[in-house]
Design goal:
By secondary structure, this protein is α+β, with helices and mostly antiparallel strands. 23% of the residues lie in helices and 38% in strands. Strands 2-3-1-4 form a four-stranded antiparallel beta sheet.
Amino acid sequence: MRCVFVQFRCTPGKTYEVADAIYDREVVSELYSTSGEYDLIAKVYVPMDQDVGRFLSDALFDIPGIVRTLTTMTFKAF
């Protein structure tokens, strides 16, 4: 499994609805609200045989209320 972090910017007033929809998809291992430019951050494990972009697009990015995302790939845990 490949670990990636995805940050979500939500439509104002829709963060909790987006968070609920993300959890309903049962794709993320952890989900947090955050301060700053993005409203949520999720830790997602993508199967090694899957294309990261397609996996995330198919699994999460069509949720209503998501305005923008930022995906950070990881390489090694310390």
